[in-house]
Structure formats: structure tokens, C-alpha cells
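Pasting as-is:
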Amino acid sequence: MTKPWNVGVVGYGFMGKAHSNAYRKVANFFPDLEHRPVLKALCARDADKAGQFASTWGFESVETDWRRLIERDDIDAIDICSPNDTHEELAVAAAKAGKMVLCEKPLARNVAEAERMTDAVEKAGVANMVWFNYRRVPAISLAKQVVDEGRIGRPFHYRATYLQDWTIAEDVPQGGATLWRLDVDVAGSGVTGDLLAHSIDTAMWLNGPITRVVADTETFVKERVHQETGKRQAVGIDDACQFLARFANGSMGTFESTRYARGRKNYNTFELNGADGSVHFDLEDPQYLDFFEHTRAGTGDKVEDHLTGWRRVHVTNFEHPYMDKWWVPGCTVGYEHTFVHALADFLRGVETGNAAQPDFRSALETQRVCDAIFASVESGGWVDTGVKS
């Protein structure tokens, strides 16, 4: 028998939509879960827009003050889908009120904020998760399984790219409800926190802690009009970032991200090369995982015949991660399903006591790498991340 689990969502933007869809779908495709999400309240400052969104997605009520939302006795969990500068205040208050807390990535604008958020949820003992949803792409989850099975062997190289092109035009403004990601005071950083945080989280999930980095960033358009003031002002976020990394396991990493790669919309890739094999993934072709097997796991036998080469695995079979919940083999799932998977894992963690990852503590480690990137840019040299190895 299921029991209602009442959610209060803060924010109705892109992520508010993605999360709301997950709350509506998870019980249909994961019927064995004990909890059935109820969209109890949507919170946003614009009452009219919030009301329209709430009506579309089936929320029972609307709040325009997040404090009132958190104070409500009929709310079990707070889901933070609002801009980065709101994350700390919302998460700390929700934790103190005894609410479970789910937060969009990045966890915070900097390590100091992330530490206070982590301390708050751990002191309160409330379940928590950060929506690094790409872990729940079935092919990426399969890559994790391949690594855990020892099929890669000793890792040597990890390389990641995350490329977009939507801010190239110089007349794109910064700030406001739609372009807050270009406002450093709200976002905290540019591609590092918005895009590379995903790449870093995936890399450390697959290949272990990143211990040292050396980085370079660039802001190609130095000034933009701010939507809220109408004035031109300096752009404080990074348009592009590239960094080298060393992992605790001795392997080397290269990471690149930009919003100035013409023709790339959401080009997110990684490749991990080891002594016994390699894996490669491309988010623009997400139903596939590429795998090269050099040595058969557990045997030490070298794979050597006339068909040796990269293997493209179509990750849609029932034995693949999450796919037994969806369609027949050969039918693919997409971006929105990753949020359903993340939510299902979170609820399963609540029910079993085996907390879903990444929680705030794990996302704090990703934030440490992000902060180390900027420390390296400032110093011009290698910087220790402080991530525990």
C-alpha cells in the first residue's frame, strides 16, 4: 500500500517543469515504491505565472512566500528549483523545519555556502539529494556498472567535454528571470558551475576523487546589458573553462566546457581509458554506450581475434539500468526519464535507509573542485581540491 508524500516545489522554470513531470510519473513506472508523490504546493514570487504553472501540472495550491511554504505542516519535502543564490537560505530553513530537501545543481555558489547547507541537513537528520540527473542516464549507469565490474582495469585517462553555443551573440543580456545564469551574483559562476559541475560529478562517480587541478577560463563578451536595470555592466561569469586534473587513483583528466562552440547545443561527452578496456558516452546519442574490451574481466585473458574493436551497446534491454521499468527492448528513453529515475532512487533510499546519491555531502565535493578551478585561475598553478581520497 502506498502513502502520500507531499512535495513543495520552489520555482517554475526549466527545472521546475522537469521535476514536476518526475513527480507525476514516478509512481506509474515504479509502482513498488511505498511513497506516492503529491504536488502539494508550488512556490514562486509571480502569483499569476505560478498559478498558471500549478494548474498545468496539477499542484493543489500556490504560495508566493517560501517561508510560508516551509512552515506548512502538510509538506514533507522541499524541492529547490530556483536560481543558485537562493539555494542556501531555502535549504537551511527547510532542514531546520524537518523537511526532506532536494536541490538542483550546483548545490551552491561556493564551498562556504555548500558547507553550511550540508551541515544543516546532516544536523537535522533529513533525507537530501542533489539532482545531478545525468548519473541516471541508463547508458551512464551502465558505464558505472562496467567500471565496478573491473572491466576497465587500472585507469589511465579521463576526458570530458560539455559544449553549448547559446550565449555567443553580444546582444544577449544578463540577469533577470530567464538569463540569471549570466549574472555572477545569482549564478556564482558560468560554465564551471552550470555545465562542468555535471562533468565533475560524473567523473568522480566513475573514476574516484579529483585531488588536484590547474585551470584557465575566459569571458569572451566583457559587458552585457542587465535585464533588470537596463544598464551595461561587466560580465562576471566564465564563458569557457578548461582544466587538467589528477585523480586519487593516479589517472589524468582533461575537462573542457564552453557556451561558444557554434553548432553544439548540449554536447556532453566522456571517455575513460584503462589497462583492460575503455568506455565512451555522448549525451547527444544517449541510448548508446561504447565499450572497448582489451582483457576479459576476471580472467586476465587478452581479447584478440578478427573482430576486436569498439562495441556499441544499445542500452534498452531489460537487464540494463532502469530499462525494465519502461518499454520493450529497442525503444529508447530520454532526458526527462533521468529525473524520474533520480526521484525513484531518492524515494527508495528514504524507504530503505540507504540514502540515494549524490547527497549534499557528495555534491559538496563537486563544489570543492569548482572552487579549486577558480583558485587555480587566480594563482596560475596547480591547486589541491581538498576532496577526500
